[in-house]
Design brief:
The structure is a single chain. This protein has one domain. About 40% of the residues lie in helices and about 20% in strands. The chain is built from 3 helices and 5 strands; from the N terminus they run αααβββββ. It has a 5-stranded antiparallel β-sheet, covered by helices on one side. The N and C termini lie far apart (about 85 Å).
């Protein structure tokens, strides 16, 4: 009986354009959500840079500061004894910011914000580079 009823029900095809448009809307929603998250992480990088510029910080100070809950989501990379990086999560197009921290005599000597794909290019909305005596 159920088989008879289901065979009598006509299946209405969903137009292809509707499927394409709904897929596009879904991608826009994901992209906008990613942009807002990226903005939040860029703000965390700004705040961290501001805090590190207030006084001479040691490597231990930097490590402790980055691991505070308010900087959750940022990743500390201790790549070398003279330069560390603090990264925001990866964004589409490698737009995520990286705060490069240079050390001299185990104290913060310079702060530079760059994007993940270019250590030389300063993002337009990033804070200016800071070099300490």
């Amino acid at each position: 009986m159920i088989a008879e009823l289901s065979s009598n029900v006509k299946r209405v095809p969903i137009p292809r354009i509707f499927r394409i448009l709904s897929g596009g809307v879904f991608l826009v929603i994901i992209f906008c959500s990613s942009c807002r998250e990226g903005d939040a992480y860029r703000e965390k990088i700004r705040v961290l840079g501001t805090e590190l510029s207030t006084r001479p910080h040691t490597k231990e100070d930097v490590r402790a500061l980055v691991h505070q809950s308010r900087f959750r989501g940022l990743t500390l990379r201790e790549d070398s004894p003279v330069e560390w990086g603090v990264e925001a999560p990866i964004e589409t197009g490698a737009k995520n910011w990286v705060l490069y921290i240079e050390f001299k005599d185990s104290k913060v000597a310079a702060l530079r914000v760059r994007t993940a794909d270019s250590k030389n290019e300063h993002p337009k909305s990033a804070p200016p580079d800071q070099v300490f005596p």
